Amino acid sequence: MGRESKNTRTKKDASQGRSKEPRPNVSLSNLGKRTFGDTVKEFLDAAKKAGLNVAVFEAERSAERQRWLHAQRLSKPDGVKERSSHQFGTAVDIVFKDQKNEFSFSADHDWKKLGELGESFGLVWGGRWKPPVVSHFQQDPFQIFLVDLHHNRFDAVASCGGCSQCSS
């Protein structure tokens, strides 16, 4: 059940004719306890069922690796001033496997089918960006913000995951 406060109207509000405004419900209990990892696992299962031979190439990323990727011009965020969603644990790179079961970034693969499948799970697909990053999938930043708001913090997190605040 969500939390609602008592009347938040002040005497000044009353004198100015403002109506009572109840406190917004910030409970996430009705949204479920599904995590970003759960979504990615379901997405990967669906991809396999759709005949796509894919696997996670990279998920959570250290600041050191992010700096290295930036230095190689393989990623825009530098890992310090601008952090990648990988550093927050809210992004994965999913890549096709070739006939030798090695990672393959070949344009011959059906990246569009993979991207649209990821989007059907509510993920943001980097293949729609300019320039496109077809292997990149991340959690919708708006969903991350809801969890941050609930916890009164503004560090990105993938999901509440059932903290003591949410499980009570």
Describe the structure.
This protein is α+β, with helices and mostly antiparallel strands. The protein has a domain of 108 residues: Muramoyl-pentapeptide Carboxypeptidase, domain 2, CATH 3.30.1380. Helix content is 31%, strand content 11%. The chain contains 6 helices and 5 strands, in the order ααβαββαββαα. A hairpin with a 5-residue loop joins strand 2 and strand 3.
State the distance separating the first and last CA atoms: 10 Å
CATH architecture of the domain at 32-139: 2-Layer Sandwich
CATH class of the domain at 32-139, named Alpha Beta
- Radius of gyration computed on alpha carbons: 21 Å
Q: Any low-confidence stretches, pLDDT <50, length ≥5? A: 1-7, 145-160
Summarize this entry quickly.
The chain has helices spanning 11-15, 36-49, 63-71, 111-120, 141-150, 164-167; strands at residues 54-58, 91-97, 103-104, 124-125, 136-138. It is α+β, with helices and mostly antiparallel strands and 168 residues long.
